[in-house]
Write a structure and sequence with these properties.
With 287 residues, the protein is α+β, with helices and mostly antiparallel strands. The protein has 6 helices and 15 strands.
Length: 287
Amino acid sequence: MTSEKPKVLDFHTPTSSFSLIHSVANESITSLFDKLSRKKNTDFSGKRVGPGWLKYEWNGSVWNLDDDADYTIFQWRQGETAESPTLFLRNPSEPLPSQSSYRNTSFYLFRSDHTGSVRHDSHHDSSSARSKKKNSPQRDSVLKHRKDFEEFHTSNGVRTITGSIGPVQDVRMLLKTGYRYVYISRKFAMRHGFIPEDAAPGHYGYGGLVNIGKWPITVGQTKTTHAVYLSEESHFDVILGRSFMEKRQVKTNPVDPTDIVCLDTGEKLDCELVILKDGKGEIVTVT
């Protein structure tokens, strides 16, 4: 145990904000869950706070705080700074407040600082205006390079997340609005028993789109059930189309393609941007 003094932890929920005294170094995550569960006059009063409820902000990103491993990392990060941490608290079984209801703008899902952080003060004196004009060709060149870079990766890179479908765990899935439903590839379906291994041409989708039933899909900590169709897509085993994105209320960030949040639970998904290439090294466009 260290002799660290307790800190004031600031908590933001979808509808309110409050603070608690907690020693990050000397107390455990269970102790923090207990304190929050005993908190009165909150929108979660009487509920047991536990894994899936807490997240915290670090280095411009939001991180889960679910178990001892997460808390160990949280302790290490807090040991590097004297500032009090900001945490976000939400009951994962409750929906987010509607747009017509009150929303706490300090809660990470309701903040609008993506665009605010790049805005500049419009009040400049004449010398700064001349300096800006003088340096504009170089600055414009940098901005154009960045724009071209982002457009390249946005157009050729595809979002992928890892989850489970049915009994199959750790499946790399394509997240794409260009598809209407949830699809699995024929090879994947045969390999894992979704369709018979001896499925012959003319059966199970060769003659058209075939629904092979409803299957549970788990992404993050949430399981939802979806109608699944067979696909001849050869690059990905599973494709999550608009039906999945609409059900989970998936929110994407046009500035950062890897920033994905499911608004039905508030979960931030781990996303990897993948650029496909064929045997000749040419980029493969997934439509």
